[in-house]
Amino acid sequence: MLVRRFSVKSPVNWALPSTVVPHRLLSSNQNDDVQKVFGILSSTSTAEQLKESLKSSGVFLSNDLIDQVLKRVRFSHGNPSQTLEFFRYTGRRKGFYHTAFSLDTMLYILGRSRMFSHIWDLLIESRRKDQTAITARTVMVVLGRIAKVCSVRQTVESFRKFRKLVHEFDTDCFNALLRTLCQEKSMTDGRNVYHSLKHRFRPNLQTFNILLSGWKTPEDAEGFFKEMKEMGVTPDVVTYNSLVDVYCKGREIEKAYKVLDEMRDRDLSPDVITYTCIIGGLGLIGQPDKARGVLKEMKEYGCYPDVAAYNAAIRNFCIAKRLGDSYALMEEMVSKGLSPNATTYNLFFRVFYWSNDLQSSWSMYKRMMVEGCLLNTQSCMFLIRLFRKHEKVEMALQLWGDMVEKGFGSYTLVSDVLFDLLCDMGKLEEAEKCFFEMVEKGQKPSNVSFRRIKVLMELANRHEALESLTQKMAMFGRPLQLHRSCPRILQNITVWKW
Question: Cα 1 to the chain's mean position, in Å?
Fold first, then answer.
């Protein structure tokens, strides 16, 4: 085994890869290098071009830089095949080891594109080079992408394969499977798999915290809470927060407050998540003003609201169509030194969309761009559909341009609506330009959008341009058939039994 020169193992962390590595303050030169390498990934189309461009760039490919480049690819939906070439090329250097963050992010990128055979190949390569490279978090990243398109049975079969890949196939890995099923499938699926496999692993506090989160009925959560105590596992704040959450979602606010009392009796201080659940529950029973009062009440206990707590209170007023109070809370947030995030703005975009308020939507969007807050995909869809309804081509093109430049939102979803608008308005040149921009990002336009543009180009006798677009589409190969892809996930590795 070669001695590690660059990589430091990351501790187990159940967060998605974007939050595994702490925010780094990169120098301007480092940022320039990240942008340069990212540009090479986006502009080259073959492995040889990639290698030559990287060699001639003069950029030192450190672990830190690779982490940042892969993170950029993930959030910009970059070309997965070329990114994999980059990952393997950098990993072939003598004595070099990728960080756990790099490996998990690369696997996430492949999984999102459903390149499952490449995932297993990469896992085997990583295991061969370093027996400790694959962690419980890696298990969750891979299973999370598999569970999105395949059945519970196939997800569990994939989990079993990790027995020969993970250095310590223990309760942490079991918890990764349960968390994946609870997030991507259902709490019932997670519960059933727990009961079928719990005799092979020793459930711990984290196991029950996973199973207690997200229940829709208090009865189900109470059952696991009882089993937890019978096994001698002591609840913590996370456990109690799950109970508070399920009671609030079930509109049983009195029970939720009783849990708060029990926490204090056990010298466990409710945290900001506890109060955020209470705020959301009060909103569900139509008491937004009382929920706003919780923001003040929690301060008296030494717990200060964060952005999520304010978002919960803002959501209550948005549901009640009291936008004045929602705006007031957002400004209060800012005055406390808290920056509204994409979720905050999305609450307003939702209201503006359903009230057909184009002007307010546009003003909110411009505010976000000034503040440097990037939209999430849902906000992009609210905006582009509103632009489509009002036939606002310039606004739609500005949104698209910002998406391409800053790397936010889903190109595939937004482009379908955008191309509809451009084609209906006869903006063929603009549609062609957006089409090429999307392809250059490694994103495949839908076949429906391509057919619409193709018809217009044929009518306009743009045969050369159409041939170019057709060649671009051919780069993506045949459309993926999901119902046929699932069995391929189980290839390349023998199915091991217990």
Answer: 34
Give per-residue pLDDT as tens, 131-190. Answer: 889 999 999 999 999 999 999 999 999 999 999 999 899 999 999 999 999 889 988 899
pLDDT tens digits for 435-466? 888 888 878 888 888 888 888 888 888 888 88
For tokens 């290839």, name the residue.
Answer: 491
Minimal CA–CA distance to 414: which of 377, 389, 447, 359? 377
| Nearest-10 Cα torsion for 406, 407, 408, 410 | 140
Q: Which two tokens stand for residue 349?
A: 């975009």
Rounded CA gap, 9 and 149, in Å? 30
User: How many of the other CB atoms lie within 10 Å of CB of 162?
Assistant: 22
* Sole residue written with tokens 């690369």: 106
What pLDDT is attached to residue 439? 85
C-alpha 367/C-alpha 375 separation (Å) is: 11
Is the torsion defined by CA of 23, 29, 30, 34 positive or negative? positive
Q: Is 173 left (phi over 0), alpha (psi -120 to 50) or beta?
A: alpha
DSSP 165: T
Can you read off the two tokens belonging to residue 67?
Answer: 């982490």
Tokens 């206990």 — which residue? 301
Please report the pLDDT score of residue 27 as a whole number: 55
Single pTM value for the model: 0.68
Domain at 218-224+232-340: CATH code:
1.25.40.10
Backbone φ/ψ region at 375: left (φ over 0), alpha (ψ -120 to 50), beta: beta
Query: Is residue 454 within 8 Å of residue 432, measured between CB atoms?
Result: no
Question: What is the C-alpha separation between 348 and 149, in angstroms, rounded?
Answer: 32
CA distance linking residue 458 with residue 479, whole number of Å: 23
CB 190, CB 210: distance < 8 Å: yes
What is the C-alpha separation between 144 and 179, in angstroms, rounded? 9
